[in-house]
């Protein structure tokens, strides 16, 4: 049984004076990979140069999330070259959120940094993350203050999602903050206790609380290859995020039902009064069809919202493992 964990509100207030030192500490980089063969060599060149300059012991945990190209072969070549590159090979594609969780489960560092290998998360920011950690922050997260590399549609939809999420959820999700961050070991241990299978990691990162500090950066273009995130996939991702942290989409139908009932009572009263005063009923076939169709549509929407939550309950109660590991490279056991 998973022991309960308490959450604390995230804070972006100034952190205390330096209380930690990177000396003798270990840094874990966690990088989920799905069909990333074109960008991996560039990624390792950039991140290894940055890590060497930081003067810390490190490991790079790469999670191959069922890639269909030569991603695994490229990862294994880098593992053979440098044993600090470790590889988890999942049995199939489980999705980025699950792959990230798999990486967090095996990361051993005192500090852990999830990062995308497409280099839209600049490795050069890790040094600033560590500075914030040394100053007392438990979480230092990147905030994309410049997203000009993204399309206008993507920027608008992302902004709309953050507003919708924060308006519907009790958890405050920092605007334009992704998975790219540094977390203290104790934050990672709390995240590992969370058992849900429909995982929205951005929300979980915010939910755990601790002392959090934002680090602004400009998001560059993808270094190579193409993103696997399409708008339909992003829509479902947003839906998972909202339903994981809010009951508002299902609660709202109680108010819709109440409003519809009051409207029906008012309309019925108007018909009665009109009949009493004018001695005839109101011809009603067109209006009746409109009311029936509108009521049917609202019922289907309500059932759909209910179904989203029932489906997630169904996924949780089955109790299947979050992921299946096929191979491990670079780990002792």
UniProtKB/TrEMBL annotation:
Signal peptide: none annotated. It is a multi-pass membrane protein. Its main location: membrane. Residues 1-14 have a biased composition (Low complexity). It holds the Pfam family Glycos_transf_2. The chain crosses the membrane at residues 252-273, 285-311. It is found in: Membrane. SUPFAM superfamilies: Nucleotide-diphospho-sugar transferases. The keyword ATP-binding does not apply. Residues 28-190 form the Glycosyltransferase 2-like domain. Keywords: Glycosyltransferase, Membrane, Transferase, Transmembrane, Transmembrane helix. Residues 1-20 are annotated as: Disordered. This is Glycosyltransferase family 2 protein. The lineage of its organism: Bacteria, Pseudomonadati, Pseudomonadota, Alphaproteobacteria, Caulobacterales.
